[in-house]
Structures are given as C-alpha cells and as structure tokens.
Amino acid sequence: MGLVAAKEMLVKAKEGKYAVGQFNINNLEWTKSVLLTAQELSSPVILGVSEGAGKYMTGFKTVAAMVKAMMEELKITVPVALHLDHGTYEGCEKCIAAGFSSIMFDGSHYPIDENVEKTTALVKAAHENGMSIEAEVGSIGGEEDGVVGMGEIASPDECARITALGIDFLAAGIGNIHGVYPSNWKGLDFDALGKIAAATGGIPLVLHGGTGIPEDMIRTAISLGVAKINVNTECQLSFAAATRKYIEEGKDKAGKGFDPRKLLAPGAQAIRDTVKEKMELFGSVGKA
Ligand code: 13P
Fold it and tell me: In the chain, is it the N or the C terminus that has fewer CB atoms within a 10 Å radius of its CB?
C-alpha cells in the first residue's frame, strides 16, 4: 500500500476511542524506526514533517520520495500518512505538489478571518488531490523550529467556524505546548476540550505537544475526542540519550564502533522503543 490520507484512520480512531500517533521525522534513521515499529505493532501511523525538517532533508520532494521508496523496500503494509506539520500557506502548496498525503495549515497566528480565507483555499486544493487537511485554532505553546506559540486556549466558536470549512481534523490549543513541559505547567484544560468537542460536531481532534503529557491526561483527552497525538521532542530526547551513552561508554572507539551504522544504531533503537510505548498508550496497536 502506498501513502494514504489521514482522514479515514482518524475517523476510525475516534470511533474506536484510541488515537493515532504522529511522529515527526528528521532523517532516514527516524523514518525507518517509525515505519518498522508501526509495521511490527500493526498500527496506523502518521509521519510528521515540519517545514524546518523538510528543509534539513533538502526539500519535501526528497522526503516524499524517500518515504515512498522505503515503504516499498521495507514492505510496509500498515496505513501510513505523510503529513506536513505546522505548514505555512506556501509550504502546504509545496507538499501538495511533492506528493505528501496530508497537510496541516497553521493559520493560528493570523486574525481569524484571514485564517478562514487561507484555510478555505487549502481545503479545496488538498481535497482535489485526495489529501487530508488539519487546521489550527488557538496557538500551541512552546517553541518548535523557531515558531514560538503562547499556548492560548482555543475559542469553541472559532473552532466551529474553521471546522465548517471542511477540514478533516482540528488542532485546538487546550494548554498543551511543544517541547518539555515546565514544572509549573497547569495541565490540559479538559473543560475547554469538552466545549470544543461539543462545538465541532465530532471531528477528530488533534493534541500537539505529546511529549511529557502524563498518561492519565492522554487517556482522558482520547475519551473526549482526541484521535491524533503528535510526538516529536520525546524521540529526540531518547535518540540523544542513547547516542550519548554509546559514546560515553567509549563504544565508538572500540573496533569499528565509529561506523555510522553502528554509531546511530542505539539511537534508532531508542526511537523504536519510544514509538512503541506511545502506540501502546494511545491504543493504536493492532488497529491497522
Ligand atoms: P512535542 O515536541 O512536544 O512532542 O510536540 C510535537 C508536536 O506537537 C508536533 O507538531
């Protein structure tokens, strides 16, 4: 199976009361680790690509070609969506042309009328190309790829307005932030999530900033309509810790331990372990 849009897997997840993980990818090792884990656990999966990561990998065309070829070579049969994360208008256009299967337009920093106007145009373009589209209301806090959000709570009215444009899933800020949560974080606002869910007629909701959210909060969020959870920083932290351990133990100096295939192996395994843990928590195992 080639890439699929994310709509169907998320509608199924919402109905089945579980969530599909979006794991952000940065390079070949990341992509391979996420795909192999999804296949091993028979779980649907969304590969997230930020604008910065796309640029790092030399462009969205490279990313799409790599993912498609890798799926074929690794014989991946679970549903996989390739999704632009926090896209600009231009980034969305590029990913549509490059052969992604899903986009997120992050118009949360525009005034709501402008967000509506741009989202409308991109809904049309995405659907004409058989792709799914996520939109955002109420910015997610923290810093990701240089984009700093204040972490506002989305207004249910604005969520309803954006949802009515025909988007496939909605990211709504409920106190979640990207990166590691500060010790004085107040937690997710479930009252706000309940109101947003009620105002948006059952559309699958997206929880950004999946790193470090306590397990009970993840379960409650899923019970209230969250069907997609984004995880990025946690894979980066586990990759870095495993790589550090390998080097600090001097393994890169023993034999041919400096061979990149050996040097990057513990980090790649650590990503697999993190992805597995998240898929088990989100309930997507066996749902492919
Ligand atoms: P974390 O880096 O906090 O896991 O957030 C990921 C995310 O929301 C990507 O959009």
Answer: N
The Å distance, Cα 178 to ligand 1 centre, comes to: 5
Looking at the domain assignment, is residue 262 inside a domain? no
Buried b vs exposed e over 7-41: b needs ≥16 C-beta within 10 Å? Answer: bebbbbbbeeebbbbbbbbbeebbbbbbbbbbbeb
Asked if residue 243 is part of any domain, the answer here is no
Domain holding 165: CATH number? 3.20.20.70
pLDDT band at 281 (very low <50, low <70, confident <90, very high): very high
Structural domain span for residue 127: 7-232
What pLDDT does residue 147 have? 57
**Pocket-forming residues, ligand 1, beta carbon under 6 Å:** 24, 48, 85-86, 178-179, 208-211, 230-234
Task: Assess whether 85 carries a catalytic annotation.
Answer: yes
Number of domains in the chain: 1
Does residue 227 lie in a domain region?
Answer: yes
Which atom of ligand 1 is nearest to 104's Cα? Answer: 10
Tens of pLDDT, residue by residue over 134-166, are 999 877 766 656 655 556 789 999 999 999 999
pTM across the whole model: 0.96
| Phi, psi at 33, each rounded to 5° | -60, -45
Q: 149 CA to middle of ligand 1, Å? A: 12
